[in-house]
Amino acid sequence: MVNTRAKIKKIQNTINLWFSEAAMAETNHLSTESGALIGSNDDLLIEILLRLPVASVLRFKSVSKHWRSLLSNRRFTLLYKNASSSPGLYARNLYIPFDDEIISTPPFRNLDFYPDPRGIRIVQSCNGLLLCRSYDGDERMHKYYVFNPTTKQFAVLPSVLGGMAVRKTIVFMALAFHQTDCVHYKVVCFYLPNLDDVFKIQIYSSDTGKWKISDESLSLPHPYFVPFHYIVYWNQAIHWVPFGDNRLYFKVDTEEFKSLPLPVSVASSEGYEDWDMTLYFGESRGHLHLVERADRSESHLHLNVYEMLNDHSGWFLKYRIELDELLDAYPEMREGFPYMSSPIYYEFEVFDVVRGEEDDETFMVIRVPGKVIRYNVVDKSFKQISDQIYLYGRTGHMHVHRYIESLVSF
After folding, report:
1. Residue limits of the F-box domain (predicted)?
2. pTM
3. How is 272-288 classified by DSSP, letter by letter?
């Protein structure tokens, strides 16, 4: 790991040197041989830039008008999104880098300096963009924003159609964005206009800059008990945790609801009785995951990580995680109920499942009392990446949002 990091750093330093030469050639019309080669070949320029950290790419935008145009072009920004990384996450207002050995500046310390005097909180993270809203105050007065924390660019969403009468019945908003299947981001608004059990839907597109009312609607027996804080955009659809009779997802491209199957182990026990049995529900590198306890009755802390098939036809068991060694290293996980041996009483949360390019690079981010742990799912190694004491208590999935570097503009 250390050797790999050193090699990457050496490559980045070499590339930065090449670009410094190219930049000098561009501004002074004087070139070294390598600088001239890079500066005169856009394809080569792009190939090298895709391997640079985002801070360097943003810095090189100021070299010249040509470079700024090249690096702002949608082709480059979408290619860079494919090559970009997930360096960390936000738990409440705390930024936690996945690798504590790499010293980096948080993408933002808070959102208070953005244009809302009441402050802004994150609602959802989606492939490099954040959906945010006014932090507090009257629900009818909430404003919604789409924010790119990498470029510090944001857009204020216009009010939904129907004015105040609709705004006060909004139940949740969901962001849909992907560099290939939804390049113009969309925001889907679910609301209960008559305070009954039928959701109405409006969809905003950044391409048109307008809201439109969808012909689709959704009827649920208990709409206010749906776990909408588990909102995930994946495979052209908006998902929330399947439980009970609510096993639907919304296809954004066709504006229709589809049925989402349950994992076999859950379906055989007649489904979830309580959505809180789901420890994690999220997406990483194009994979949709659901994490649950392997067996609530056993005394060992074992987790199942399920992955959804790309056609939405079913789940398969991707990883079985045994956390007994984590319990030994952090006995405080048992302190809340010291006389209870069942894992349902252990104090921990699964913040994230982060897929690597290779299986042995995949890890989970787990919160134990007062600490955050990075746990490798293959070799079972783990290390502490944060010890911020104000993370005591349940953080909750609605307050954990992954940060992904992206140069996408809107």
Report:
1. 42-80
2. 0.84
3. -S-GGGEEEEEEETTEE
